[in-house]
Amino acid sequence: MDTHRKDLYPDVTASGGLVSAMKEALKLRGSEVWPAPSSADAIVIETARGLVSVVPATEERRFRVRVHIPGFTWDVPGFTWEIGSTDRLESLVRMVAAWREGVAFDELAARFTFLELDEFARALKRGEPTSSQWADLLSTEFHRKQWGLLRRLHEDEALRHMFPTISHGAVRLRVDLLDGASRQVLVHEQGERYEVRVGVPGAAWVEVPTGELIAHLRAALNEQ
Predict the structure, then answer these.
(1) What is the mean pLDDT of residues 167-187?
(2) Which among 39, 69, 74, 148 is least buried, having the fewest CB atoms inside 10 angstroms?
């Protein structure tokens, strides 16, 4: 922060930075202290509902809050929403803790009036991030080798609502785009056959005949 003019964040400065200030506030509440990759003036908090970033404004005392859902590939930047700002550190800390705990969006908006969740909630309801991700992957030249498999998966009414990513040449379909640990399958095309892995990393690959791929994926996602 600029030390040549009035300090807008004396409480943050006294604590040694935003990370320390938020951790101290959490301890006073008896809440969990999260690991926070950060700089001295901003933090990024990993949650099951995206990456929450907090950036202090420089022109006035204001903690700006954003939510980012990574695109998970180098050429797809992901999706970011501004969801509000507050000048109160305690309110900020309580909101972030509630967000991490999975409090429903309606309740969050009621409890923390500085939040502006309408656009974020509408985008999720419309499936906007998921449809945009499919469009990006299906049009990015870098993923041309996966286009055939992507198109086949996208043609299925159920599978096109899964959030797609590409990992080491394999297509990953995840039920919940906000939760990296949600139900998911990984599909790798091997010429005239497919290899499928269900769930967590380390699970065995299963060879699936071409004609059975869609049914196998549907069944695997329903069983998890």
Answers:
(1) 82
(2) 74
Give yes or no for a contact between 42 and 53, defined as CB atoms under 8 angstroms apart.
Answer: yes
pTM: 0.65
* Residues 216 and 198 sit within 8 Å (Cβ to Cβ): no
Q: At what angle do helices 18-29 and 89-100 cross, to 10 degrees?
A: 70
Report whether 25 contacts 90 (CB < 8 A).
yes
Report the percent of the chain where pLDDT is more than 70: 84
Q: How many CA atoms, within 13 angstroms, populate the side-chain half-sphere of residue 83?
A: 27
Q: Which residues, 6 or more positions from 22, have their beta carbon under 8 angstroms from its beta carbon?
A: 36, 43, 54, 89, 92, 93, 96
Model confidence pLDDT, tens digit, residues 108-123: 999 999 999 988 888 8
The answer for residues whose C-beta is within 8 angstroms of residue 177's C-beta and 6 or more apart is 69, 129, 130, 133, 163
- The DSSP secondary-structure symbol of 141 reads G
Phi-psi region of 223 (alpha: psi -120 to 50; beta: other; left: phi over 0): alpha
Closest CA to 137 of 97, 182, 170: 170
Measured between alpha carbons, how far is 182 from 168 in angstroms, rounded to an integer?
A: 20
